[in-house]
Amino acid sequence: MTPQPTGHDAFNSGDFLALTANDVEMRHGLLAIFLSEAPQLAERLSRALAANDPREVALAAHALRSLLASVGGRAAFHCAGEIERAAKGGDLVAAAALHGELGESTELLRTALIAFVRGAQPSC
Amino acid sequence: MLSESGFGPSPSEGAGVRPVRHIMVCDDDLAVRYAMKRMFAQELRAEVIEAENGLVALKALRESPVDLLILDINMPVVDGVEALQAIRSTPALARLPVIVLSGECDAETVKRVIDLGVTDYLSKPLSRPGTWERLKRITASLQVEAKSQPAHQTMSKGATLMAGHKLLVVDASEDFRYFIRTTFGTRFRIVEAANGIDALDIALGARPHAVMIGRDIPQMAADQLAQKLRTLKIRQDLVLIAVAARAELDAIRKCGLYDACVPRTFVPEVFAREFDALGPASVPLAELLELCPTLRAQMVSAAEQVFGMMLKMDVEPRDRVVIPFQPPYAVAKIGLAIGDRFAARIDLVADVTSANAFAVAMFGVPEPGEALGELSNIVAGRVKHALVNDHINVTLGLPDVSVVETGEVDARPHDSLGVRFGVTSSDYELEIRFSVSARNPIAADAASANKGLS
Questions:
Q1: Does B28 touch chain A (CB under 8 A)?
Q2: Smallest Cα–Cα separation from B171: which of B155, B190, B194?
């Protein structure tokens, strides 16, 4: 089971499997971490955007990006990377514009990841 | 793919070398730490110690020697580059194998890390094809002395608590720290650190009001420590003091990192005199800032906004500058009662010639008392508004303007908050100051606070 990457899909099972291989327990562990950490990091990013703090926006987006990479969330990973880049360039307008997209792709990832880990077919 | 073996015990194990068994993974991403811990444990039978940032890693490395460190770069508190600098400057850790695993691919950062010395540099994400295989290969190729010395050294950590404000003294010399302890121990609560990492750790926990930093401290350069303390915002009003040879002071001042620079001397009277000139904050101010942590920022903001908007002039901070006002001079005082325990006062100071010119510029009439009083009232009102928004009870007094014919304008009022701003035009010069005192209990009559600091 080695699906090919399909671009910025919400959940890329190939990425996830590259890390977890046949370790089912690890998949469950990463899912649990994602479910507990992602909302906190998303909230941190929202607060930083609301506070107009480019440095904190960049740090929060970077942290979120790292988490998303571990669970195969390509679309959200890409989006968080764009937000981080925009914030590092001081462009919080651009960062804020991508915030909604990040939320949507993270939610799609959440649904697909839960389904995948709990035994359903991969979404890509 | 990942189930393949081949990384079992080396044939040479037991013959003086052994495979890597103890690995530290330093990464702020819990998922990365979890995945690596699991993979290293399963495939290399290695024990993994986790660290969520560079500071946690540096502290843990003292207690738990490891054979290999996997290090992220972009982390809070102490990042990977800073941690690596500290590691390489610690003799017992200088040769520790370090593999950087980071999503940070900025060329300058990569170059810095490589210059400091790393075994390898791998790009995140960990799920990138080949990354884990390469990491395993590098790890397996590392062999360590079977009976190696602990990869850490115990460093002294001192903490002496006394009455008064908290001053963290960071200096490699025990003699100098002793000197500070004996010179200022009755005035301040002295906390000590012998190196940069200890200093950072202590500062995060103890939240000192001031940090005095010697030049040649181990594990983290003095300026790097100062920069880090500023970035971490341990306190809004944190005072950073450089202690250095007189010949170095000018250069240090120019770097702009420190609030003050004091020459290094072991003569108590000389050092105390130099130090006194800094006007260190005292207990009432510290208590007030506990109640109202944003006070200094609000004051700065008020001065900048009011001066900037009304006068259309740039405001320059004058925290440490003595303005050579000559009498007669005019002072507008306005008091605030903050909470039920503190009096604060905003002073607007100008020499009379300046005050006249300012009044003409502001109101078109030579009424310096009215002009200064009005301006101080506006600044105080702005401060009050901000504090009330923070749910802090503030009562404002009435401006009290006086002309002082003789004597000197107090260069640095008692309990100064370190907020002094000035504006200079071709016609006039003004300075605004903020000072506080504890009155326990203070009457809620702010007008009396006008006199409270007189």
A1: yes
A2: B194
